[in-house]
């Protein structure tokens, strides 16, 4: 296939820069502890300095893969699919989610919300970043808000973000992994004082699984 043809299909969301795909246990947020098939899509310009998958940022380093192939792989493993990145909303998610839905699968997304919401989702985990704030429509449709706590100022940011989501959105504070020993006690104290929040941990890292 010519490069121009591939780029056209990527623009339409019919091919995506696939970084990796794997079957594992969801480690974070509301669905932690449940089995799910993860599809990690390359490409992100949000630029979190503490990002633990910086290799996902450059979409050009990940092979454009047809969504039919991605869907066929996913359907063999689980009825719950998690689309993550990178920033998956960099791309048009409609073709991928339509094909996953046609297989009767439940589809979750983990997103910063920095781009317009495309695709059909059973669960939207919004993890906003200061560098590039979410679009209004993502705030309104998010099922859970997961704010990463790297320092004390992030509690203020968390409250600013909580004020923007819908009233049914579940609120989580999650320590950035490298700061967990310092920030977990502060998060616990904060949640006890502000019980609308819940604590989220990267339990998959404690369990030593992907």
TrEMBL record:
For this protein, the Enzyme Commission number is: 4.3.99.3
Functional pathway: Purine metabolism; 7-cyano-7-deazaguanine biosynthesis
Q: Which InterPro entries match?
A: 7-CO-7-deazaguanine_synth-like, Aldolase_TIM, rSAM, rSAM_sf
Instruction: Please share the entry's free-text remark on the cofactor.
Output: Binds 1 [4Fe-4S] cluster. The cluster is coordinated with 3 cysteines and an exchangeable S-adenosyl-L-methionine.
Function, as annotated = Catalyzes the complex heterocyclic radical-mediated conversion of 6-carboxy-5,6,7,8-tetrahydropterin (CPH4) to 7-carboxy-7-deazaguanine (CDG), a step common to the biosynthetic pathways of all 7-deazapurine-containing compounds.
Record text on subunit structure and interactions: Homodimer.
| Protein name as catalogued | 7-carboxy-7-deazaguanine synthase
Instruction: State the organism named in the record.
Output: Robertkochia marina
Q: Which gene encodes it?
A: queE
């Amino acid at each position: 296939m010519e490069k121009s043809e591939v780029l056209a299909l990527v623009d339409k969301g019919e091919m995506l820069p696939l970084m990796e795909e794997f079957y594992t246990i969801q480690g974070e947020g509301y669905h932690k502890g449940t089995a799910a098939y993860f599809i990690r899509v390359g490409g992100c310009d949000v630029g979190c300095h503490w990002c633990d998958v910086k290799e996902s940022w450059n979409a050009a380093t990940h092979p454009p893969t047809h969504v039919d192939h991605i869907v066929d792989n996913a359907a063999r493993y689980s009825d719950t699919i998690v689309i993550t990145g990178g920033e998956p909303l960099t791309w048009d998610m409609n073709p991928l989610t339509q094909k996953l839905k046609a297989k009767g699968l439940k589809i979750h997304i983990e997103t910063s919300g920095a781009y317009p919401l495309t695709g059909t989702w059973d669960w939207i985990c919004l993890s906003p970043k200061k560098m590039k704030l979410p679009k209004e429509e993502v705030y309104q449709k998010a099922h859970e808000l997961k704010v990463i706590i790297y320092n004390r100022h992030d509690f203020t940011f968390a409250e600013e973000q909580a004020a923007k989501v819908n009233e049914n959105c579940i609120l989580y504070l999650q320590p950035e992994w490298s700061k967990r020993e310092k920030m977990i006690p502060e998060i616990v104290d904060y949640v006890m004082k502000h019980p609308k929040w819940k604590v989220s941990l990267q339990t998959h890292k404690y369990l030593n699984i992907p």
